[in-house]
Structure formats: C-alpha cells, structure tokens
User: Fold this.
Amino acid sequence: MMNIMSGSNSWPYNQVKLSKELLESLREEGKISDTFFAEAVSWAEDLANQIMFANIASKPLLETDDIKSLDELLIQEKKAVSEIGIFHQMEDIVKEHAKRIRIQKKAVDEILNGRDWAHMPALKVDAFIPIDLLYDMQSFMGIFNPIVWKKPDASGYRLFITDDNVALIFIDDCILACGSLYQYVSGVRKVPDPPDDWFKTPHQTMLNGGDCDDLAILYCSLARSVGFHIYLAFQPRHVYPGVFIRESIEIKKEDLPSEVRNEERVIKATQVYEVVEKLFPVDSTIPMPSLVLNVQGKTRIFPYLGRYTVVFKSLYSSLSEHEKKKIDAKIQEIDEGLKTMMDPDPNIYFID
Assistant:
C-alpha cells in the first residue's frame, strides 16, 4: 500500500480517476448498473476527501501526540447492536479523547470566544492548561468554599453562596461555556446516518462532519475535557448529549436552614443564593435559539442556556411588563420545542 504521508497531495484524486475509469468500463460492459456506478464514484470521492483532510490535519495532531498515527483520522469503529453496547462504545471514545490536549484547547478556545455573548464579566484564564477540571463540582467546592448544609435525612446536601462571592460570576461563566460549546458543535457539518453505521472520533467529526452519534461524542469530549459532567440520551434512531449545569437561585434569608442563616458570611451578606445542578439537553442537530434583551438602549444576546445566569435575571427584572411578556413567550416556545425533542422520554446514561 502506498504511504500517503509521503506522497503528493494529489494522490487520492489520481486514485479516484483510475477507479472511475474502471467503473466506467464495467458499466459499459453491463456488469454494474448506473445507480451503483454513481454511488461508487461518490464513495471514492468522499474517501479521497477524507484522506486529503486527514493528511493536512495530521501534522499538528501528531506533533502534540493527540494521535499516534494517521489511522486515528481514518479508521472508524463499527457500531454495536444493543443500546447499552452503543453507549459503552461512545463512552470509551469520549473518555479517551477528552484527555487529548487539542480537544481541551479547542474547548477552551470556543469558551473564550463565546464569553462576549452576554457582555458580562468573566473569569480570566490566560492559558488552557490551568482550566483543566475547573468546571467540575469538586473544583468548584475547593475553589469557592460554598456553605454546605447536609440534609437531616442524609439524602444529600444543599449548597449556598453569598452575593459578595466571585462564584456568582463563575457559575454564569460555566453556563455560557456550555452554550459556547453547543454553538460550536451545532455549526459542525451534519451528515445523514449511513446504512452501516460507524463511529467517528472527535477529530474526524471536526474535519468531515458527522451524524447525531458523532456530534454527541464531539460535544461530550469537549465538555468533559474542561470538567463538565455529561450524559447521553437515547431515543429510537437518535442520540443526543446532555450536560449538568449549575444555577444560582436567589433565596430569602428567612427560608434558609437555621444553621446556614447563622453563618457569619450569611449574616453580613445582602443576598444569598442556592447552587443547584440540573440536567440540560444539548442536541447539536437542533440550532440553539437565542434570547434578545433590549436594556437601556443596548442589545444583549444570550444563548438559551444564558437564561439561567445571574446577569440575565438582573437585566430581565429591569424590563417593562410588556417586554417581559415577549421574553416569556419566547422562553415558553423554546421549552415546548425541548419537550417535543425529548418525546418519547429518552433513556439517559451518565458518563462517569
């Protein structure tokens, strides 16, 4: 077999030309149909494009050890038969590629690019290495030291922060980070499911596009690489990713558990917030709707996930009742769309 790494960039297309000539002679002899001829030529051209893109893209990936050989950009894994088998295959691909430096760097680049969506202050991250695992709950607990209240029935705990805590900004940043990754993956080229389905790696999908399985793997790999907890949701003939987002909900001091209410930082605080986690579907085959707020002559655009940020809630509260009704109607429309998307109820599998 010829080594395409050392050959000319035109090599794949020369092979397509030779293949097409052979196919034409077989068609003229009546050995293949016009339909098969057209399909075979299309397959050959698609493979040539994949090889070309892979050859060009492989150099920086090889230099950073993100891939060991060009095989990783060309070889695809055959899909299992059962749903749980498919999940475990996808989970393995996500776990492996979320550790790759270029996947993490791509995630951080998209997050940084998306931070001006809401014109909000954000934590400054000067490089992609320090952000590793910064968005996971363990890091959140360690960095921001929220007040932890254990439920008396030992069923779990509740987290509280105060309004003088930079954690408020950070939680907003986490929400918009999920939205930025959603926006990026939604823009990746979508291709229909092939009859014999194969899984692509995140690198392959970024280069050549992918179906719903491939886009779900890509989103989960990017999100996991910076610490988000993610899951996969399965429906008949469809799968999409989801992410845990943390939301800060304003809470009155008198509604706090007494142990929390008597904390010194709570006594001194103007406002207290409870930090809650929720599952949120991020189906990248569906365009992300945006919410537009016109406040004091300025237009602020938020991704739909941005509705859970403190800055959105603050701006929303300053709107007129008429403007609030328009935003509420838009949110209801989006919510209905999400319900439709999740009908029938998906089978959800969490990636540890």
Summary: The chain has a mean pLDDT of 81. The first helix runs from residue 11 to 28.
